[in-house]
């Protein structure tokens, strides 16, 4: 009994001892140095050295959803789902560039993260600009496990003009560097773009300041050139700039003035004086005298992707001479092949086993690498800006602005060759970086890595504008023209021949993403007083940087010259991307001799060769090469017919509507590319046959339903339906190439047309047929060029290959 009482007293005293500090902590004044932290959420202390970066990760997911990960103190970590709410999700989605959140997830729906759990008990009111402004337990203070990782689902609509968050950028501080530029010293360099050589200047307060060149190294130059969109640096003739500086200094200290007999300065002397004032050496000297050196020294390792990441020593504000014995740092950069001047004898080469696909702008896209004869993708596990920069530089761009994860530039096809790529930043190719070979269990194409590279400033966006549209993404096109008198004015582009490929170039030049549609009549956007047509017959391949690089009439020739028939565009941040399942074509191909009496409907829809018209109907048969085609949408927007359902054509024989006259071309080619047989397929029923796990069908043809293909879904045309064939009745035995092209007339815009073509080697012995080596890829761009050159009648015969405006 006594022992029992002792135990009770001991338990009470222990409990009292545990509770007393907590009670004291609740009543201790807030300024007490010994205060014990409580679980009451407080605003997260903002990091003093970097902005918070946010990304979405995990699987399975789309680009606008996923596990939330924050980059803090050089490490990625997650957020616990305790107290998580839609207000938190709204803040995070806006931080990622989406307009709002549509939902949030708990319990690691997108998989468990790794590393730190940076925030717990986060409580936002929804109006904060950043998640670190919300209340929480503080950075790194959590009692959660990764089983409780929070996720968000954002509305798939971007904030207009939003600058992506997954960027290495500097803090907003006087003693940090956010923006860097080259100011050319040599007069001729100022007239050419891109600017490749000049004084390095950094944004400082409301102006620009220089960097002292003392202890300046080639590694610093490498970083600066990368930021400005250049893959390599060149050695600067420093002695040239030193001589100019010295000469200017001597002339300033001992000016020589020619005087006349009357003691006045002669006109010649005045002219010489003017020349000296504007000389490059004089400018360098005066800049040094103005003491605008914001940065005293820089010590980059050469692997940084931003000058702000290098060790910097800033000039003291009251120093009388902040660059004694030095001068402004000058760098010279080597542009990539796309931006190089024509007069350079030796042009740098770019990689032929790495490419970017699916990007709307130059220098961005999904990373694809070539192994053997097949292209594949890179998994985004541990994908970093250093690895992305290696890819960017080997393709002739600068360092990376962003290392994108979660198939942000669309999903690839075929194998995934690399995982956990760990580049240092100095490698010449991504193939030189350590990486892991993977299996299908490790990664899926929803984890394809992508990049956005720094590209040189070319100024092409200033020579084109949109007018009259409801949003900044649409309108009538107006281009800047210089007339014979040297006067600049805006004129219009003739809408005749204007189509999707031309709109792709215009949207790219405007920096507005993908082309949703090229418009030939713009009467409903009539809000401008510009009425003159200055361009006509514009014809682009779709890969040009600006409309001035496209073919067009030497002299304006426009039958419908009224302003309401001027060209216009509708641009979009996202686009669809169709690709054919090549292996299914190879597996399902066979020959059928089909009786003519079963082909009346097919003949009505022009699905047979021309010689069928001379056949003895209904007797006899036609020999058909049949196969199935499964068409996937791996883009970031649904594929929908250009025409609305009110204009779909009803075919009574087959009893269905055609939403697109030609959806696919089926061609049998000889070895030299000559067409020996052909077929075509109208989209009589464009729908979601099946979808990836977690993706819902949206399009179904039944009952005059909407037609299209959802992102992550595919449409299957079976081998046993009408017109799913090539009529090879007149083809002799031999070796051929089977070619299938989706969306051949570019009727609907896509993010990547180069994967719309499939080719197979084909052997025909007169009775049976064998397909092998079926592959998707660049064959389409070659075919597009061949078609472009083959039908010059679409263009004015006098048009030069490239007519620079």
UniProtKB/TrEMBL annotation:
Pfam families for this protein: Lysyl_oxidase (PF01186), SRCR (PF00530)
Q: What is this protein called?
A: Lysyl oxidase homolog
Does the entry feature the keyword rRNA-binding, yes or no?
Answer: no
State where the protein is found: Secreted, Extracellular space
Residues in the signal sequence:
1-25
Q: Where is this region: Disordered?
A: 30-50, 252-281
Q: Which InterPro entries match?
A: LOX-like_protein, Lysyl_oxidase, Lysyl_oxidase_CS, SRCR, SRCR-like_dom_sf
Per the record, the domain of life is Eukaryota
Q: Which organism is it from?
A: Champsocephalus gunnari (Mackerel icefish)
Low complexity: compositionally biased ranges: 30-39
Quickly give the catalysed reaction.
Answer: L-lysyl-[protein] + O2 + H2O = (S)-2-amino-6-oxohexanoyl-[protein] + H2O2 + NH4(+)
């Amino acid at each position: 009994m006594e022992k029992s009482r002792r135990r009770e007293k001991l338990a009470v005293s222990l409990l009292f001892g545990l509770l007393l500090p907590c009670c004291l902590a609740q009543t201790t004044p807030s300024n007490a140095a010994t205060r014990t932290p409580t679980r009451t959420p407080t605003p997260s202390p903002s990091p003093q050295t970097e902005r918070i970066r946010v990304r979405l990760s995990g699987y399975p997911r789309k680009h606008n959803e996923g596990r939330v990960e924050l980059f803090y103190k050089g490490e990625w970590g997650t957020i616990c789902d305790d107290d998580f709410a839609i207000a938190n999700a709204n803040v995070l989605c806006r931080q990622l560039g989406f307009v709002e959140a549509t939902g949030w997830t708990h319990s690691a729906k997108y998989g468990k993260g790794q590393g730190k759990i940076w925030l717990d008990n986060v409580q936002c009111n929804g109006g904060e600009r950043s998640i670190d402004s919300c209340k929480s337990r503080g950075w790194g203070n959590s009692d959660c496990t990764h089983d409780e990782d929070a996720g968000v689902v954002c509305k798939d609509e971007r904030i207009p003009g939003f600058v992506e968050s997954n960027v290495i950028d500097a803090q907003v501080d006087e003693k940090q560097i956010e923006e860097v530029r080259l100011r050319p010293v040599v007069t001729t360099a100022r007239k050419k773009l891109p600017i490749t050589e000049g004084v390095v200047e950094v944004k400082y307060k409301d102006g620009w300041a220089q960097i002292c060149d003392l202890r300046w190294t080639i590694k610093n130059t490498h970083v600066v050139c990368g930021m400005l969109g250049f893959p390599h640096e060149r050695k600067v003739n420093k002695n040239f700039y030193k001589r100019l500086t010295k000469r200017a200094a001597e002339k300033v200290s001992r000016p020589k003035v020619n005087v006349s007999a009357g003691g006045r300065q002669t006109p010649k002397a005045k002219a010489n004086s003017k020349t000296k004032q504007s000389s490059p050496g004089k400018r360098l000297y005066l800049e040094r005298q103005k003491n605008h050196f914001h940065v005293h020294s820089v010590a980059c390792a050469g692997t940084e992707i931003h000058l702000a990441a290098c060790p910097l020593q800033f000039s003291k504000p009251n120093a009388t001479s902040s660059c004694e014995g030095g001068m402004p740092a000058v760098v010279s950069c080597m542009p990539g092949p796309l931006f190089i001047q024509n007069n350079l004898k030796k042009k740098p080469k770019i990689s032929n086993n790495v490419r970017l696909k699916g990007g709307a702008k130059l220098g961005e896209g999904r990373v694809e690498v070539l192994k053997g004869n097949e292209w594949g993708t890179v998994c985004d596990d541990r994908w970093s800006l250093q690895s992305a920069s290696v890819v960017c530089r080997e393709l002739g761009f600068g360092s990376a602005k962003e290392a994108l994860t979660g198939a942000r530039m669309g999903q690839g096809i075929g194998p995934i060759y690399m995982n956990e790529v760990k580049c240092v930043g100095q490698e010449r190719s991504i193939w030189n970086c350590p990486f892991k070979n993977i299996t299908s269990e490790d990664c899926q194409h929803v984890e394809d890595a992508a990049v956005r590279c720094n590209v040189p400033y070319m100024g092409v966006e200033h020579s084109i504008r949109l007018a009259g549209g409801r949003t900044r993404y649409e309108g009538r096109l107006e281009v800047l023209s210089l007339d014979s008198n040297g006067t600049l004015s805006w004129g219009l582009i003739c809408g005749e021949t204007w189509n999707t490929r031309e709109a792709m170039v215009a949207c790219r030049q405007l920096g507005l993403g993908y082309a949703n549609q090229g418009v030939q009549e713009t009467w409903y956007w009539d809000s401008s007083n510009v009425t003159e047509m200055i361009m006509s017959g514009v014809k682009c391949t779709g890969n040009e940087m600006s409309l001035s690089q496209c073919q067009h009439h030497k002299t304006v020739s426009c039958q419908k010259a009224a302003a309401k028939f001027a060209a216009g565009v509708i641009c979009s941040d996202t686009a669809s991307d169709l690709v054919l399942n090549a292996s299914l074509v190879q597996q399902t191909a066979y020959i059928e001799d089909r009786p003519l009496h079963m082909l009346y409907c097919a003949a009505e829809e022009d699905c047979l060769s021309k010689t069928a018209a001379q056949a003895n109907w209904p007797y006899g048969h036609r020999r058909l090469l049949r196969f199935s085609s499964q068409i996937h949408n791996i883009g970031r927007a649904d594929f929908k017919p250009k025409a609305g359902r009110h204009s779909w054509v009803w075919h009574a024989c087959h009893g269905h509507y055609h939403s697109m006259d030609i959806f696919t071309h089926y061609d049998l080619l000889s070895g030299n590319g000559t067409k020996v047989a052909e077929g075509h397929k109208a989209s009589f029923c464009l729908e979601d046959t099946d979808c990836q796990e977690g993706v819902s069908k949206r399009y179904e043809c039944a009952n005059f339903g909407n037609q299209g293909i959802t992102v992550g879904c595919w449409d299957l045309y079976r081998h046993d339906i009408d017109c799913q064939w090539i009529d090879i009745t007149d083809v002799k035995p031999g070796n051929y190439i089977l070619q299938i092209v989706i969306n051949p007339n570019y009727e609907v815009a896509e993010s990547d047309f180069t994967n719309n073509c499939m080719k197979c080697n084909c052997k025909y012995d007169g009775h049976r047929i064998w397909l092998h080596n079926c592959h998707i890829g660049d064959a389409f761009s070659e075919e597009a060029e061949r078609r472009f050159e083959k039908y010059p009648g679409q263009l004015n015969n006098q048009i030069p290959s490239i007519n620079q405006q």
